[in-house]
Amino acid sequence: MAEFDTEVLVVGAGPVGLMMAVELHRHDVACRIIERSPEVSLKCRALHVQARTLELLEHLGLAEAAMELGVRVRAENIWKDGNLLQRIPLDWDPLPGIPFPMMLNLEQNKLEALLSDHLTRLGGRVERGVALKGVSQVPESVTATVGTPNSVDHIRCRYLVGCDGSTSLVRKEMGLPFEGYPYPDTYIMADVEVEGWLAPEESHRFIRGEEVLLATPIRGNHRFRIVMRDNGPSQVSPSEYGFIDEGRPAALQDIQRALDRVARPGLHLINNRKTSHYRVSRRLASRFRKGRIFLAGDAAHLFPDAGGQGMNTGIQDAWALAWRLASDLRGFGTWTLLGSYEVERRHVAAEVADRTERAFRTRTELLDLEVEESPQLWMQNWAQLETNYRGLPGFEEHGSRPGKAALEAGDRAPDGNLELPGKDSLRVFDLLKGTSSHAFFFFRGLELPSELARLAAWLEQHRSHQVRCHFIREICSPSPEGLSPLYCDPGGALATRYGAREDSVILVRPDGYVGFRADAMHADRLLGWLDRLLGPVED
Ligand SMILES: Cc1cc2nc3c(=O)[nH]c(=O)nc-3n(C[C@H](O)[C@H](O)[C@H](O)COP(=O)(O)OP(=O)(O)OC[C@H]3O[C@@H](n4cnc5c(N)ncnc54)[C@H](O)[C@@H]3O)c2cc1C
Q: By CB count within 10 A, which of 54, 153, 301, 447 is most buried?
């Protein structure tokens, strides 16, 4: 490390940069994070925190704090011409494998504060008032030119991650086009207090004529976030996109008048705490990586404002990149592994862009208002639990397929309960904590089949620093010699959820995605798969 100032430099301390820095620290990677703004931003931006993000926060021990600071949204009501058209309940009972079947409203600045405090606990800190000015790279390193108002410095690092938002200098320095287009309108977002008949933990979408106004709850008495089109003179040139820092502050009376026009009478605004103006765009960077420089979050993608996807997708970019960088820096990553970041995350971003664009047009052009949303459908679409990498290079299935609806390589590994004989039950997500990959050996008989036993022994001898083995059996009886830890899966519920109808091995990567699955006969193919991903080991 002596010739480097740090292993990874993270540029930008928005939610994505903060998650990136937290994850790198958790993976024991030396990193620095710089932020050009000297002050923490309190602006009105993201609010919806999706179920998959809550799972990641739980992994970090932050989910409980997030839930305490936020509001669980219980329903979305759609009103047309003053009448309730549809009520979509979002207050579901626990769903199998899904510990957070909900959407949480938590202001972006509060989530950033949670991540920033956690970073401090892990020994990191945001270097505020330090802006990236330029970046260059050679095959073995990256050099960033950074500046404060009275100094210029150079930071030499192994990798640089641009989490510097929609106007990313990192992206520009890499010469990467930000392909896409802006939408014409400007929107107002205001955090207000409303007196009247609005149920406190429910969202409302009011439609009258061509006008749409959203009100969604924020923690605190009578507090709601209002989103509406800005009918004042446009504040932006057509080339601008994303968040607009300065705009005409929305007057309380303007929002009240809009509310009076579209909603049922009886709602009174008593306070406007803060306002943002923003423009909606759909854009995707042509690459998410160039050599040793990566993009994540808004620097890589911008989505139309529907269903709260931008920040959530960016946070998952960070989650997906940190373990790859850590593997590489520990000497067991391959260029294939680093390259797969762009393949996987760009694939996801393109899908989110299509979906949010459809939903945004539905909302603003008032199409398909009668759509029924079942919890499952909602989860698939917006909670990001169904986000998957199926069919992409690097995911493998061998042996008989478990059926159309079953879990496949490329899917998020679901939660579930297991028992350790003589102890309390525990959750799969507890096993997945930590920073390594996990090999789940599912078997039905008393003994582990010989093919799986050979594989497990080899993994424990050669790759125990990268892969942890877990043995899972339907029968709850004392452990056969040598198998530890041996969990009991009463009724085979977890095996069914994981599509392990036969004796099989399933490899879950450090980001919680199933990378490989094989029945016992093909289990030894895991060795080649690991070689390709993490590099070969010496026998
Ligand atoms: C009004 C609005 C509502 C939204 N609602 C939601 C929602 O409900 N759910 C959701 O998921 N998403 C939502 N989004 C999107 C979400 O806000 C963004 O996706 C998210 O902020 C992206 O995070 P980021 O860290 O990538 O970028 P940013 O939050 O933009 O952070 C980038 C950081 O980099 C810093 N920076 C920039 N250049 C430099 C430089 N040269 N040197 C050092 N630092 C630099 C900036 O100061 C900034 O702090 C919303 C967006 C808007 C505008």
A: 301
Of the chain, the percentage scoring pLDDT greater than 90 comes to 69
Assess whether 405 and 510 both reside in one domain.
yes
183 torsion bin: left (phi>0), alpha (psi -120 to 50), beta (else): beta
Q: Does residue 271 sit within a domain?
A: yes
User: Which DSSP letter does residue 383 get?
Assistant: I
436 part of a folded domain: yes
pLDDT of the residue at 233: 55
Which of 316, 351, 383 finishes a domain?
383
Same domain, 418 and 511: yes
Contact criterion met (CB below 8 Å) for 295 and 170: yes
Cα three-residue angle 498-501-506, rounded to 5 degrees: 45
> Which residues does the chain have with pLDDT short of 50?
237-240, 247, 367-370
Range of the domain at 228: 181-281
Dihedral (Cα; 506, 508, 514, 516), 10-degree rounding? -50
Give the pLDDT confidence score for residue 410 in this predicted structure. 97
Rounded to whole angstroms, how far apart are CA atoms 213 and 258?
Answer: 8
CA of residue 65 to ligand 1 center, whole Å: 22
How much is the pLDDT for 476?
81
**Tokens 């043995």 -> residue:** 471
Query: Which among 493, 453, 499 has a CA at the least distance from the CA of 474?
Result: 493
- The complex scores an ipTM of 0.98
User: CA 340 to CA 320: how far, in whole Å?
Assistant: 10
CA of 12 to the centre of ligand 1 (A): 9
Residue 276: its pLDDT value, please?
A: 81
User: Is 101 in the same domain as 245?
Assistant: no
CA angle 286, 43, 260 (to 5 degrees): 105
Residue with CA closest to ligand 1 atom 41: 132
Measure the CA dihedral 529/531/534/537, to 10°. 140
| Nearest of 272, 295, 271, 293 to residue 283 by alpha carbon | 295
Q: Measured from the CA of 298, which atom of ligand 1 is nearest?
A: 26
Nearest to 103 by CA among 57, 49, 67, 52: 49
pLDDT at 235: 52
Which of these three, 231, 262, 281, is where a domain ends?
281
**Ligand 1 atom index nearest CA of 276:** 1
Q: Are 169 and 244 contained in the same domain? A: no
Q: Is residue 478 part of a domain?
A: yes
Over the stretch 145-177, which tens digit does the pLDDT of each residue have?
Answer: 999 988 999 999 999 999 999 999 999 999 999
pLDDT of residue 374: 67
